[in-house]
What we know:
The chain is mostly helical. The chain contains 22 helices and 2 strands.
Amino acid sequence: PALRDGFVYDDTALVANNPQIASLGNWTKAFSSCIWEDRLGGTCYERTKYYRPLHTLSIMFTYAISPQPLAFHLANIVYYIILNFLVFLFLYKLFRNRLAAVLGTALFLFHPVHSEPVIWISALPELLLGIFAVLAFLAHISEWRGKNWWSAGFFFLALLSKETAVVIPLILIAYDYFWRGENLGRGKLNEYAPHLILAAYYFILRVWAIGLAEKQPYIFPGPSLADKLAASVTALGIYVQKVFYPWPLSSLIDISQARFGFNPAFVFGAVVLIVLVGVAVLTVVKRYRVAGLGVATYILFLAVPLAALVFTANLRSEFIVADRYLFMPLLGVVIIFGYYLALLIRKSRWPVRGLVFLVLAVVTFASAREIYAQDTVWRSYQSLTGYLHEVNAARGVPAVQTDFSRAVDYEQSGDLNQAIRLDQAIIARGGDFPLTASLAANHLGLIYYHYYRNTDKARYFFNEALKFYPESTVVKRNLDVLDGKAAPTGGKWL
């Protein structure tokens, strides 16, 4: 049913209102810039941490076929079909057992957390990363002529899809260690020379296009290292829990209140971390083939979003857990699940086999039903923000990001009182969430100007927005427009 959905959340800026992707003549900019160029004021250099040329190219080609949402949703579904076929080939090549490959692929296909990357157009990088990552794995475990270069080539394409691909060579090394019984030496480094060469080339391209690092003028104090570590450990616990019990599904679970100590979510994450470290050490020492490769794949893919919380999160509002970040880590889970469940079925008698298949059928039906139901969540921006607010409210978290989105929804639907109430509540918590508070104050300024023609209140809230975020070019521009020093960009306020 996702084919009936529209553009939601980032889809509007990335696709619907993005002049960069509207013409195939801009294809070279996919490599020399980023897909956010227009939204970032015409340049991506040192303004973003995302360099994903294949994402941009895919959006361009789909837009050339049709600019309607249906085309983009159909593209995501086609990519997902291709990916699951490749997952089956990989598992079958790995195990040489059809049942294990079918069971593992079924878990990958029907796991509810995968609904977000397929239903949400802007999550396309996850699908592209998955396709090229699995192709890199397939090439590595194959007997293809020149397989090292094939594997490195797919690794390079995965890097051009999403930065998480950086861990692929480490997973290949894990395969060599657990499956082939090889150790890392000079000869092994020579085998990975193509990967190192193409990784270096990617790094050069990236620095040329968007610079070495994102340099945002965060004037207000950011979270401490202790807060970042606590958020990372808390997120680990939630991600592991979601493998076995993925509900509630969410693209934004706010963990900004994560703290060291007796916070239940943090304590659970710390226990999970200790257990995972113990399991990892045991599999390395004992060289358990299947468990070792599965755990390594899961941990390495998940390490990237967890590390991002520590090294790139400049605001507490960036402390989130999202289903899409489990997309590739789940490949490690299906390696273990497919192999050991197939082993259980083969070694069991029919009454036990029948019970196992019955349980699998029930779980599959429940998962498919949950995935189908997610269509109503992603149907519109308003339905999504309402759902995310409920998910966070159930956790006792003041979800200011979703509250701001709801305020915009209320304003656009004509319920100005509700919009003002939500914006004011966010501003009251501005010390904890300065960026969102700045956005809320700016939004109030726009409301008072456009709907009430009250320039004094508009100016007051624009200035309040600058107190939270002094370097906001958006707010400064709106003040200039208000004072007659500039014209609205494209006839629109910001």
